[in-house]
Amino acid sequence: MTRISLTVDGQQVVDDVEPRMLLVQYLREKLGKTGTVVGCDTSNCGACTVHLDGRSVKSCNVLAVQADGAAVTTIEGLAGDDGTLHPVQEAFRECHGLQCGFCTPGMIMQTVDLLAENPSPSEEAIRLGLEGNLCRCTGYHNIVRAVQHAAGVSAGSTSSAGEGATA
Amino acid sequence: MTATQEPAQGEIGRDRRRKEDQRLITGRTRWTDNITLPGMLHLAMVRSPFPHARITSIDTAAAKGAPNVVAVLTGADLGEGQGACINAWPVVPDQVTPAHLPMPTDRVAFAGETVAVVVARSAAEARDAAELVEVDYEELPAALDLKEAAANTVLAHPDLGTNVSAVWRFDSAEAGTGGDVEQAIAEARENGIVIEREYRQQRLIPAFMEPRSVVVDPTGEQITVWSATQVPHILRFAIAATTGVPESKIRVIAPDVGGGFGGKLQQTPEEMIAFAVARRLGKPVKFTETRSESLLTAHHGRDQWQRLTLAATKDGHVTGLKVDLLADLGAYVAIVGGGVPVLGAFMFNAIYKFPAYQFQTTNVLTNKTWTDAYRGAGRPEATFAIERLMDELAHELGKDPLEVREMNWIKHEEFPFTTVAGLEYDSGNYEAATARAKEMFGYDALRAEQADRRARGDRVQLGLGVSTFTEMCGLAPSRVLGSLNYGAGGWEHAEVRMLATGKVEVVTGASAHGQGHETAFSQIVADRLGVPFEDVEVLHGDTQISHKGLDTYGSRSLVVGGEALVRAVDKVIEKARPVAAHLLEASADDLEFSDGRFTVRGTDQGMAITEIATAVFAAHNLPDGVEASIDSEATYDPVNFNYPHGTHLCAVEIDTETGQVRMRKYACCDDIGNVINPLIVSGQVHGGLVQGIAQALWEEAVYDDNGTLVTGSFVDYLLPTAADTISFDLDHTTSPATTNSLGTKGVGEAGTIASTPAVVNAVVDALRPYGVHDVAMPCTPERVWRAINSGGSGGETTQAAAPHFDESEGAAQ
After folding, report:
1. What confidence tens digit (pLDDT) does each residue in B563-593 have?
2. Which of residues 31 through 60 in chain A touch B, CB cutoff 8 A?
């Protein structure tokens, strides 16, 4: 067992963990941060994406011990303390960028990072930026709209997703 | 009392943002794997690496001694308590159906089948110990190739004496719904056109994003089962029917479920094993599969060979269609299993006026993962075949593919139309949908660009693909299911509870897993009952709350479940009427109900239905003989299937030097009748399109010669990403369904059914100048390149999907 100390969604936590424990397992099993989910075992799907010191990582690809001393933000820590949604969360709802919602935590966390790096991405940049996150429900159409909406570059359309699609 | 709430207006047709989303975008979700109970134990499965083998011994001693292992159990240990996996649809009376134990005791029939289960205090310890279980196998010859299996070269289940589970046939001459197909073909050979083709529907994996998970809690009077399932009611029935535990002692809950697409329409061995282990140990247990386990053992879809003969006159009028399928069931006949090709039987004739039709499917057992419904279930296969054939006919005639379709399709003024397969299509307008799709697509301009690229001998060629589909959905009229020997009905149940505080609880027997039922059903109730959208709460997916239902698949929730809801709401209003009359001191005949209020005709007196709900709750002043409840329920059995249709147009660019296919444009106009929520509908279409496009271009479950699934992870099973796909142009025409109150038609499967042939038609269209008339799916760059260079269909992709490990290390488990 190895002792780690880190901040998760603003809360200081200390635990003894097995060296082989993945960060995602630590978040889910030790901290009950079940908003972050596991969708594969080959780091393809990105459902487990969280922020580690402000950058997106696939938390199935990071050992819990590697997060020692770091600040982790999960989907559960993204909204304001008063419940105000992050603009990216709001955009996913507004543009119907989710259906079953399983990939959504990862998609949202990846989008936040993508927009931090490139605040006005082209559709191509969005699609490439989300390439590491799989979704089986939406066909990505409305996810792309949600990212555009959050970036404020919604191709001149006011209600991007509703009319489906003439974008 | 006074009405304090403004009645809702015009909810139906409004692009309401979804109620479900708040919890999903903040991580406040309840996936089955999130559930943790006191003393809960974890399961790991020991799975066969061989597709067909006799189990000669299982040594569990080392595993039992591993840290924190509580038990290691085999099929023999569980005995009859493990129940059985059922087949609900024996498609013929003498169907050959192998017994399907959740954990077989003597022989495994596919690679991935469970032979032992390890129970430990943590999931990691259970998995570690599973590695220590020593199983000795005596390998048996495996039936892997579908065509060889159909010829009984090697038997998947030697005791059965055959691999042919069933031969199911429909013939229009025998059924009296049309002419003799052999005669039509003979005449066309003499005097017309005969198109004969063989197409392959490759094996696919539904690949929902949430891996399956099950938690069973045997403490308390009812045994509670949480499962990532589409079918909580069917699962409860199946557990009860095969374990002997009374149905009333089992509660099944489908909490938040992360996608299904048919893939979670199953009674799984893992659910049965978890149920048996929890009962045996008296402790809660959880099993959550890894993605590799999911791809390997959750049921697969499609997997057919299709032999097709289309007869037509010289000018291109179709005269007959003969369909002969081989369908791979895999190792067992799954819950719907053999019924999947039968669901396609009525759809090969599609939107066209065939005078004669014959369909036959031969359902074949093999030693591969069992197959069952995957989005569209039988109808994508049918649509692919006919839409590919119509393009071939057009090519033969030298006509535009849309022109040939129009010559043969049912005209809008001919509805209702009884087809050669015996179905009555209630409504539709193929002309209107096609015109709109062409307009969005810019069809003529793209054809001109195609001609230009061909003339220039451009390295990048353009292909245009057409798919004018219809489908039958809204499963299903119970009498029809009965006539097809299906083991259950097709009704749906709904209940409306009027709460004392003015809120409304709606209970539905449909079980959502991402579709947005909570939103769409709230809109329907808000409109019809005249209460605010926000005040309606939709409850589902728990057999103790929703005690009656047949769950969600086959695009049925809205058209069957929604109609049940409409009827339950109407009953609430009728039950409230005498109470309103009493309280308003008026005659019931003088009351009108609109916008949530009863008003006395010709006066300003009135009362909101929510006020009546409160008065009924208090029950201080009810008319004599009236019960103190206006809550109502309804069970609705559909009178017909319903028949959405649409025209889908796809343009692809093909780099003729590399074989790379790039999506250029995709436009579709679907007619799904009246739309409840256009936002949800567009999402269903987008997602459906990509699943269908993925069959055309990317996805295939590939087995090697040893019966090992080599596409057993997301590294090898090619789910499309955002970077592979494009944005779509969607629109709708509206021909309301005439068989339900809301005029709606199903939309969940439409995109998937329509898009696959549109894409392949586009690929083939681009390659026509190279003498290509088919490219096998998925149309990988390798296959396209080979087709260009040989004029064939591109061969197999087995080698392209070879396992990513050194073969000298042997088969990986």
Report:
1. 999 999 999 999 999 999 999 999 999 999 9
2. 32-42, 44-45, 47
Burial of B460 (0-12, 13-18, 19+ CB in 10 A): middle
Lowest pLDDT segment from A112-121, B488-497, B789-798? B789-798
Residue with token string 């015996």 = B422
- What ranges in B298-360 are assigned the alpha helix state H? 339-344
For residue B16, the model assigns a pLDDT of 97
> By the CB < 8 Å criterion, does B346 face chain A?
no
Q: Which residue has the tokens 């999911």?
A: B294
CA distance B253 to B260: 15
Q: What percent of chain B has pLDDT over 70?
A: 96
Looking up tokens 């749906």, which residue turns up? B492
State if pTM tops 0.90.
yes
Q: Is the pLDDT of residue B135 over 80?
A: yes
**Does residue A165 have a pLDDT over 80?**
no
Domain ranges within chain A, ordered by starting residue: 2-77, 87-151
Q: What average pLDDT does this structure show over B327-333? A: 98
- Span B380-407, pLDDT tens digits: 999 999 999 999 999 999 999 999 999 9
| pLDDT for the residue B576 | 98
- The pair of three-digit structure tokens given for residue A114, joined into one six-digit string: 């993508």
- pLDDT of the residue at B797: 55
Radius of gyration of chain B (CA): 28
What are the φ and ψ backbone dihedral angles of B374, each rounded to 5 degrees?
Answer: -135, 135
Kindly state the helix (H) or strand (E) to which residue B18 belongs, with its residue range: none
In this complex, the residue of A75, A127, A141 whose CB is nearest that of residue B27 is A75
The CATH number of domain B21-28+491-636, selected from 3.40.710.10, 3.30.530.20, 3.40.640.10, 3.30.365.10: 3.30.365.10
Look up the ipTM and state it: 0.95
For residues B765 and B461, the answer to whether their CB atoms sit within 8 Å is no
Which residues 627-686 of chain B have a CB within 8 Å of chain A? 678-683, 685-686
B15 touches chain A (CB under 8 A): yes
Task: Kindly report the nearest CA distance between residue B20 and chain A, in angstroms.
Answer: 9
Cα–Cα distance for residue pair A145/B713, rounded to 1 Å = 29
- Report the alpha-carbon distance of residue B653 to residue B376 in Å, rounded: 27
Q: Where are the domains of chain B?
A: 21-28+491-636, 426-474+641-802
Identical fold for domains B21-28+491-636 and B426-474+641-802, yes or no, is yes
A28 at interface of B, judged by CB pairs closer than 8 A: yes
Q: Using an 8 Å Cβ cutoff, are B746 and B644 in contact?
A: yes
* CATH number belonging to the domain at A87-151, selected among 1.50.10.10, 3.30.565.10, 1.10.150.120, 3.50.50.60: 1.10.150.120
Helix A87-94 vs helix A104-117: crossing angle, to nearest 10: 120
Would you identify the CATH topology of the domain A2-77?
Ubiquitin-like (UB roll) (3.10.20)
Q: Is the pLDDT of residue B482 over 50?
A: yes
- CB-based burial of residue A164 (10 Å sphere; 0-12 exposed, 13-18 middle, 19+ buried)? buried
State the pLDDT at residue B794: 73
Q: What is the pLDDT of residue B217?
A: 98
Q: A123: buried, middle or exposed (CB in 10 Å: 19+, 13-18, 0-12)?
A: middle
Which of B18, B24, B122 should one mutate to test binding to chain A, selecting the residue with the greatest count of A CBs within 10 A? B24
Tell me the C-alpha distance between B510 and B517, whole Å.
Answer: 8
Structure token digits, residue B406:
């129009």
B10/B216: higher pLDDT: B216
* Amino acid in the structure at residue B593: F
Which residues, other chains included, contact B147 with Cβ-Cβ below 8 Å and sequence gap of 6+?
B305, B326
State the Cα torsion B213-B219-B222-B226 to the nearest 10°.
-10
Contact residues, chain A, for B805 at CB < 8 Å = none
